[in-house]
Prior knowledge:
The protein has 356 residues and is α+β, with helices and mostly antiparallel strands. Helices cover 34% and strands 29% of the residues. The chain is built from 11 helices and 15 strands.
Amino acid sequence: MGLFGLGKKPGLGIDIGTDAIKAVEIVPQGDTYEITRVAESQLPKNIITDDEITDIDKVARALKQTKKSMGTRAIDVVAAVSGSQAISKQLAMSLDLDDEAIAEKIETEAEALIPYPLAEVRYDFESLGEHPTMPGQQRVIVTATRTMSVDTRVQALEEAGFKVRIMDVDNQAILRACDHVMPHLYPDLYDNKLPLLVLDINSAAVQTIVIGNGEVMFTRYQSGGLRSLFSALDNDGEISHPELFAKLRAEETDDFSPLVLQDFLGNLWSQISRGIQIYRSNATKKDFAGIVLVNSGAMLPMIVDMLGEQAEYPVISLNPFEHFPLPDKYEHLQPHGPRFVEALGLALRSFTEWHT
């Protein structure tokens, strides 16, 4: 199996996060898709460190639980490595080159494109079509990641009874979900000529992604995320992090130190501001149509409110379940939609051609 492949119907996307596994199964329905199954399984602490799996067996057990909870008969799956582990470069190549010729050219120039020995990486490419400013040229995006990052995820999934058809990159999955859902839920923002600033805030990190014209224009990872806040509030482990998350979601913060909350929000804004500054230093379009929040951070009102006060742009929490109605038995997960954005993007990837 190469880094990427081609999935089969139904589309099953599994997001192996630092704190939980999220899965979404979809089937084609007319000119769109229908969600048929959704599941989430919590992961024990510290079995994924710096986006690398440190205990494959425990991840495999959680994946088995996810499979059991879904009740799915599908085994073909799309998963992802973290963008912090992947390298993407966009190249200009002659429009006359077909896939085989592009692959040969990449092989020839691999040492200059990929800062690892070719034997230690898996890579793939996609033509993005004719270059807008270079006549006779096409844009080609090349994505590579270390083989180890792919293999540990593949091993865990296979031990759980899945067959990995595609290994994607998380920010590409988020882009795909945004491109599918945003035109329906927020057409004015999506149709704006300015790019969108997507903030993926999970338990371990903040990922800043700028998307526009169907591609990831910028991405930056910073460790931290919500875990630092939970650790400051858990009274040395007396309160579980899921319980803290539920309290923060419900804005039940009277028992929490206002200074701790303010300090966290201040540090979070500093991280986000720094990412914006780095993007703007090389960008031609320095403003954004809006800010799109995904993952766990999108479910916390205090983060949404803080960004609304600090940012100059509209701020939305993207819940794909507002566009894709859930089957009745999964209705309780509807408010958790922002946590399933990547899993949905991976499921959508099952129906997109890529090279093997």
